[in-house]
Amino acid sequence: MQIGQVQKETGLTRKAIEYAVLQGVITPKTMENGYRDFDEQEVDLLKKIKVLRKLGLSGTEIQNILSDNSVLQKYALKKDVQIKLDQEKSKILEKLSKSFDYQTASKALDSLSQKETIFQKLLDAFPGTYGELFCFHFAPFLNFSIETQEQKQAYETVVVFLDEIPSFEVPDELSAEFKKGAALLGKEKLNEIQIQAQSSIQNIDSFLEENEDMMNHYLTFRQSKEYYNSPAFKIQQLFLKFSQNYGYYTVFLPALRILSPSYCEYCKQIEKAEEKFLQKYPQAKALKKEN
């Protein structure tokens, strides 16, 4: 079945279908004429995705459900908790609108915050672009509430780190390139990059096989004078030095691994994928020292 027929069958847009392909949820075959051929099982998956997306579930949650139906009940409970939290906040807001008693409202919110997800807590703690960029970058690993004392301590470490780390300063001669790159990274793009990265890591063998030409081109470029003279390399080196100086690798990431079991598991997957990558491309070991 070609994509036009799939659109009629599922009621999904072409972009939504292509997004599911990008996520690796469905893998239609490519025919000799270049068109993709979707089978009945893939169409059925798309229909399920449509239902789950309308229920407000994230891309990562949908992938987990499609891999294991048993987690659907867990997400249903989480959604129920979220609805109740929103209802409680609505009640507090209504009382505040009548009494203007901010002290009472603050106490009620403090009590309620114990049930909030890490994602919600950090967005509240760091309003604006700074908080959004961080939260949406790590979003798949923050959708839970704190349960243990160890997690509570790790969360406090993360908050202090984010609150006290100075702004990343870029020299004037590189600022134009930096701003240009930052402008391209909106919430949707960050989410797309995160999904692509997770898919690549989880399927590292097929990714390396399917992208061999691209990887060879990338590694050649990374070892060229053109790259070492580029603004991208200079900004990367500045950020690396900045991260090392202020404890990004020694304080923040270890705390995040304690705080989020899913992030800890993701790091283990990265380590395994990196090992396979270096086995196939041993010349990349020299590049690793730069990062």
Q: What does the model show?
A:
This protein is an all-alpha fold and 291 residues long. It has three domains: 3-67, Multidrug-efflux Transporter Regulator, Chain: A, Domain 2 (Orthogonal Bundle); 70-115, no CATH class; 117-291, no CATH class. Helices cover 75% and strands 1% of the residues. It is built from 18 helices and two strands. It has a two-stranded antiparallel sheet with strand order 1-2. It is globular, with a radius of gyration of 22 Å. The model is unreliable at 183-187 (pLDDT under 50).
Helix content: over 70%
Sequence stretches where pLDDT stays below 50 over 5 or more residues: 183-187
Strand content: under 5%
Give the total of domains. 3
Strand count, sense and barrel status of the largest sheet are: 2 strands, antiparallel
- The order of strands across the largest sheet is 1-2
Shape: globular
Find the structural class using helix and strand composition: mainly alpha
Number of strands: 2
Following the backbone from N to C, one meets helices and strands in this order, namely: HHEEHHHHHHHHHHHHHHHH
Task: Give a quick summary of the entry.
The chain is mostly helical.
Which key phrases capture this entry?
single chain; 291 residues; mainly alpha; Multidrug-efflux Transporter Regulator, Chain: A, Domain 2; 3 domains; two-stranded antiparallel ribbon; 18 helices; 2 strands; globular
